[in-house]
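Aim 2 progress update. The chain analyzed this quarter is reproduced below.
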Amino acid sequence: MTPLAPIASPILAGLREAAAGTGLAVSSSASWPETGADAVVTPLAGFIESNFSPLLAEVAGRALRGRAVPQAPGRVTAVVMVSALGDITTAARVAAAVDAGRRVSPLLFFQSVPNAVAGYLAARWQLTGPVVCVSGAAAGLDVAALLIDDADADEVLVVRVDLAVTGGGDHAAAILVTSPDGRDQR
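Predicted structure tokens:
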């Protein structure tokens, strides 16, 4: 069987460029879609009607599994979520229910908070660092650099998700960054 050709990811390229601009080293990365096999995002228990959280969890997991070296005990990994519009699918569903005078599903309320999926990631991957949500890649990498420079984290998982708004598909990318020399700052 012939392996599927990789799909170029402008989002991943942008994260890598922003990381280089802040002087951070990228130790692992992933994107969605990576190949033509990435057609449907695997559902994530507790998250409904939107690809935002499942997509974020998928690329984060890919980047964490792609580490060259497994996470050492005591190593602190922070999470920085980047999204220009957040989970617009969930926001639209909540707004439609409110406008129609219908009850809003408790799961939609839960997942409308971006930190909900960050909590899932932290528990699933035993990440013990801070969680920050921002709207731009440059801001996300600036935050990552500060977390590492201030010894709040040894490494930072930066994940960007963009849901399709006016056509095209959903896209996401994740990079795991460390200090330029890879050493712990603490």
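Residues 31 and 173 are 4 Å apart (CA to CA). The helical segments are 10-21, 52-65, 88-99, 106-111, 115-125, 137-149. These observations will guide the mutagenesis experiments scheduled for the next reporting period.
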